[in-house]
Structures are given as C-alpha cells and as structure tokens.
Amino acid sequence: MLNTSEKHIARCLKLASKVNGFTYPNPMVGCVITCNNKIIGEGFHQEYGKEHAEVNAINSVKEKELLINSHLYVNLEPCSHFGKTPPCSDLIIFHKIPFVSVGSSDSNSLVAGKGIEKLRNAGCVVETKILEQKCRELNKRFYTFHEKKRPYIILKWAESKDGFIDQIRDKTHTTPTSISDIHLKPLVHKWRSEEQSIMIGTTTALNDNPQLTVRNWSGKNPTRIVIDKSLALPINLFLFDKSTTTIVFTAKEKESDENINYVKIDFSMDTIDQILAYLFQKNIISLMVEGGTKLLESFILQDKWDEVRLIKSNKNLVNGVKAPSFKSEFDFEEIFEKDTIYYYRNF
Q: The whole model's pTM is what?
C-alpha cells in the first residue's frame, strides 16, 4: 500500500511518461500540487525548451491563493539554474509553497542538490527519495548521460532460431532477410521514437538502405548515425535524404550539408569512445545500435551497453551471417506471435 507521498509521486511518474522521446536532452518530469489532500494542479514537461513540469502545474491552479497552504510533489529535483527557462525552485519560493516532496535528486552538475538546498534555505519543508528507484528508472537515460558521461546505449537485433541475422548477400540474395514477424515493426519504430539517436555501420547502410525513421509509429525520428570511414556510401541512400539529421563519422574531411553532418575521427584509435564522446558533447543522451554483427560486438566487447533487446525468431536460416556472440542472463521476455523478445540489462 502506497502512502500519500508515494501515491502522488506515482502520479507524477505517470504524467511524466506521457511524452517519452520529446523532452530530450531534458528528463521526463511530472508534478502534482495538493491542498488539504485534494489535487488542485497537475503538469508535466511536454517538450525540450518549453515550460517545466512545476511551471505547468502551478499555472494549472485556478485559485493561486491556495498555493501558500499547498504541497508540491515532483519526481525530479526542481532546477535551480537558468537554462531555456527560469529556475523552478525560484517559482516555488515565489508562491510560498511550504511543502515539497521530491522523488529523486538531479545528477546534472548544474543542479545536483542545489534546488533542494535553495528550497530549504527559503523555509520549505522538503522530503526526498520518494519511490526513488522508480524515478531513476523512468529517467535512466538522463542519469546515465550525466553520471557516466555518455549516452544510454541500447543494442538491438533480430536473429533466427539457429543464430543468424542475415543470409549471405550474393546474386541470389540481394535484399534484407526478414527475420522477425512483420507485426513487430510498429514496436520497433516505437523503440526508435523513444531514443535520441540510432546507429548503423557501413555494411548495413549499403546492404539494407534503411530509413531508420518511425514511419509505423507517432513520434520524433531519432538522429541517424553511420560510420563511413572512406565516404564510400552513395548519396542516394535514404540516410542522405535530409528528412532528418544524419551524422557521418569518417576519416576524411568533408563539409557538412543541410541535415548531414560529417565528423572526422581517428580510426587508428578507439572509434566507439570517440563517437560516444562526440554524442555526449552534443547532448545526445541515448543511442540505439541497430547495426550488423561487427558493430554490435564492438559495443559488447567493450561493455559499452545498458540494454540489449534481442528478437528471437522461430525461423531457421541454416547458414548466413552469424548473430553477435552474447552471453548473459535475460531479465524478462515477451512473446509476440511466433517471435520472442529477450530483454537484458547491464547494471
């Protein structure tokens, strides 16, 4: 049975999760305001650059005079710095809200306890760590980004029952092999909409010519990332249609074009570390890797992953391109039609 604070923080989490994928690089935040145990205001952060959850919740309160006797609940520590918007802690203090409950602290160095400290110094009674693990789970991408100084990394692939991700491409097999059931496509596109970037390698780009968009789901297209060391990829690929931003990591100098950003890196050094450092610098907090076996294994071997989503088909290919070598205990599984999705976490 949840106590009062937990019940309202749970509501904050439900509000916050409405817009997964739209707030990045900001976290997902919901806010509830009560007076005499009755909810008088709610709000959530709807999109990066727009008002934060606390602002929307306070604005939703019709009788502002009630705020002086109210209790504000929020799943993440109120900000204390000027960014795209003014500090939420200042707004709470301005309205003399006496009680504040916080789900989890903010690990962004610009906040990191300063919001809670500012509220307490102003006389607010602040309780913390309410459903803390659930609050951190909702914003796992945000926390990983600020604490590990890299994006949250999800590795995703589909493999046949006998362990292949594709047939050998030759004159007979020139198009991508359908491994998973077509009914899974909307789910895969939903996954894409929840991440800020998506990555493939040169071979996948050439063989499959993927669009890497969310055509079968409603949401934002992730930033597309491809490795093209020698700039050998033809410009007529979907990656270069300029419909959404594409980042090309290459060994050559090339001037960026509209929505196509060329980034030179040193291929004699660790390419994965350079790519992750660049994405961190650009405030890209999550990355889904949908490449081939070589690219996926490069992340696995370096232990640079937070989740694996492995779609296992009931089909046999007999021979082909071997799936990534991956040995770990899955956290849970889901069965869709004839396929099973295995979910792994790297804590």
A: 0.93
